[in-house]
Design brief:
Its main location: cytoplasm. The chain is mainly beta. It is 4% helix and 32% strand. It is built from one helix and nine strands; from the N terminus they run ββαβββββββ. Strand 6 and strand 7 form a beta hairpin. The longest helix is centred in the N-terminal third of the chain and has 6 residues.
């Protein structure tokens, strides 16, 4: 579950713009919102203030690298570029990665996000990274990249999951 005291509830009208960017005079019954969490309190009267009060989640950089592939491209002059979101760990140029379940090992030559070079990619980053001596045909969507020296990912015959549908 969740703690309702830690959630800002804001009545809005997107059609009329009420309580979106500034407090509306059309809802005199609404006195504002207040959230209480271990990091402190926050309060406001409109949606933009509630969005600004959201704290970014902790990024698990201390865990082993896990980067599920969303796609793989062949880019002329660069080579094979797998693309995905870093879920845990850190991806840097020079890292020797293994792709599970195919067990393909290679070196990361470079990485970029939004067409800008990256020195490191952290959890939450959607990145493309260039790998050495691996063809596009060897990799596919769903493979998981991990650091070959730090608890590399492995294929599994089966697993147990807890699925929550909201």
């Amino acid at each position: 579950g969740y703690n309702p005291a830690a959630v800002a509830f804001v009545p809005i009208s997107g059609w009329h713009g009420d309580n979106m960017l500034e407090a509306s005079t059309k809802m005199p019954w609404f006195k504002g919102w207040l959230v209480e969490r271990k990091e402190g309190k926050a309060e406001g009267k409109c949606l933009i203030e509630a969005l600004d009060a959201i704290l970014p989640p902790a990024r698990p950089t201390d865990k082993p690298l896990r980067l599920p592939l969303q796609d793989v491209y062949k880019i002329g002059g660069i080579g094979t570029v797998p693309v995905g979101r870093v879920e845990t760990g850190i991806l840097k140029p020079g890292t020797i990665v293994v792709f599970a379940p195919a067990n393909i090992t290679t070196e990361v030559k470079s990485g970029e996000m939004h067409h800008e070079a990256l020195q490191e990619a952290v959890p939450g980053d959607n990145v493309g990274f260039n790998v050495k001596n691996v063809s596009v045909k060897e990799l596919r969507r769903g493979y998981v990249a991990g650091d070959s020296k730090n608890n590399p990912p492995k294929g599994a015959a089966d697993f147990t999951a807890l699925v929550i549908v909201l």
